Amino acid sequence: MSSNDSFKDTDSVIMEKMEQPPVPNTKARDGWQGRMDFLLTCIGYAVGLGNIWRFPYLCYKSGGGAFFIPYIIFLLLCGVPLFFLEVSIGQFSSLSPVTIWRFCPLFKGVGMGMVVVSAIVCIYYNVIVAWTIYYLFMSFKNVLPWSHCYNSWNDERCVDGLEEVLNITSLNITSANHTKMTASEQFWENHVLAITDGIEDSGRLRWQLFICLSLAWLCVFLCLFKGVKVLGKVMHFAAPFPYLVLIALLIRGIQLPGAVEGIKFYIIPRWEKLADYQVWGDAALQIFYSVGMAWGGLITMASYNNFHNNAYRDAMIVPIINCGTSIFAGFVIFSVLGFMAHTAGTTVDEVVKQGPGLAFVAYPEAVAKLPFSPLWAVLFFLMLFTIGLDSQFGMFETGISSFIDEYPSLLRSKRVLLAAVGCFVEFLLGLPCITQGGIYVLQIMDWYSSSFSLMMISLLECVVIAWIYGTERFFKDIELMIGYKPHAIWHYMWRYVTPAVIFGVWLFSIITLGPVTYDGKSYPTWAIVLGWILGMVSLVPIPLMMIIQIINTDGDTIVERVKKLTVPAKNWGPSKEEDRERYVQSLSIDESTFSNMNGGPVDCEVALLQHKQKIERNGTSL
To answer: Which residues does Na(+) 2 bind (predicted)?
Structure first.
């Protein structure tokens, strides 16, 4: 073949690339109606139940105010860099977590892993939302049902408050078979959960929770079936409302006797705790879970942004607000726990709990002792309901948008049906969690599904973008959006510091992840195995998709195919035509720039010439 023939073949490849129509799955994509839609949705997504019921406990356990130091350090080293990375690449491409891997098709399974993690967490997270709905309904009574022992679910072990439990314990008095329990504990265990003795006994379905779970998924559907246009409007109420309730609860809390002692217990530093590696590990894990990296939600929400939105600014704002919310929530929680300890005549460490034990036992018991207790109970559980739904919206939208972006011609016009089917399937999968033994199932899902696998997904995401796609190229993409390159420090954070921190957190999570337990009860071997399967299922798509992609890519050797799969696909780039034209101009003129999955390197000067000719033919200036 002559050189002229070779030139013609190359020219035809370029013409095919440059003349192809705009990518169909992004052209008709919805977007936020305003900048605040994105910002409020991100805040609502990042600020979850963990900010309310886990952070204050970790702070107390890990040295009080001293815990703020490792927490803020990991926020700066890991939380902010990953948030900036995900928001930037999502906004640049206007694609969801699976389709976005056009920039490095070999690792498409990483995006699928994100969707799997979010889908699993959606199942049990909405069960927690269902609990808050039930408590909310029960709060609309003159006398809160968990404030006394005269209900059908109470037994001889019930006492009206913690102070009576402590008095009885100090006298070494117990009932015939068990130690005493507070009315709020019995309401939670005997009535809401109607808990069995273990996961082996699932018991019957709790019809009250069945109704509440149905309502929870109905709320998700109504807010998401029309996409982000409706969601953005909803978040103008749903995001700020919890802060109004927290402020109201804090104002009421600090007026209570014992509140100051509770707050002191929360913030007074115990510096010796900083020498404990567990404290640093807990701080890193809390940042990882609360900011929302590697779940796919940040990429999804950023993908609906205007191309020129200042992602740099937003990436600084949201993590700081999230961190501040956690610290602020601690003051709200410990002011009331201080009051509870004062009323019981004991110390705060006797009443402090975390997780469901704080939200559904300790805090409701304290609220029951306040004047106008139903009002404060309604506000508290309405706040929990809103916070839970805010996070649920982000996770569920991740799955919906991923399917639509992968199959746009088939699913874009069927979003309502897809949302309905998705909600119904997730609802059915959540039914085992609302049986009498459902809390044991939920604990397994929470224990394993989003622990070590989440860190591995995040590590791969950071390494692929920083090392394979390249920080220099990524900087140019960001510059194209916001008008200037980020500071060089992000180059070192994304390439070295953040991956090292993530790897350390991953090792810590593996080392400290013991067998699942609930309330001191051990699980059978088969349940633990099931938990590990749940944890691994989100990692399976990564090697599986690598194999599929390599098989489906042309090339004489595996190495050649892998090289092609680590170069951005020909349809990678901004979604709008005018932005894509500027993107092509911004690329470095080298052979790798115009490589694609279906062909090798091409003559870059020819490519740029043909692109200019196309623009001139369309009457568009460079």
So the answer is: 44
138-158 pLDDT, tens digit each: 999 999 999 999 999 999 888
CB contact at 8 A, 578 and 550:
no
Tell whether residue 619 is among the known ligand binding residues: no
* 361 labeled part of a ligand binding site: no
35-164+179-552 classified as CATH 1.10.3810: no
Give the amino acid at 195: I
Are 297 and 118 spatial neighbours (Cβ–Cβ below 8 Å)?
yes
CA distance 54 to 65: 15
Is 51 annotated as ligand-binding? yes
| Residue extent(s) of CATH 1.10.4160 domains in the chain | 35-164+179-552
Handedness of CA 557, 558, 561, 567 (dihedral sign): negative
**Residue located via tokens 């196309």:** 614
Res 166 pLDDT > 90: no
CA dihedral 613→615→620→621, nearest 10 degrees, is -60
Residue (of 613, 471, 595, 517) closest to 19 by Cα position: 613
Q: Is 130 annotated as a binding residue?
A: no
Cα–Cα distance for residue pair 348/366, rounded to 1 Å: 12
Residue 402 near residue 296, CB atoms below 8 Å: yes
pLDDT tens, residue by residue, 562-592: 999 999 998 999 998 889 888 888 775 444 4
Whether 454 contacts 288, CB under 8 Å: yes
Q: Is 248 annotated as a binding residue?
A: no
List all residues 6 or more positions away from 582 whose beta carbon is below 8 Å from its beta carbon: 480, 574
Q: What tokens does 131 get? A: 């609990």
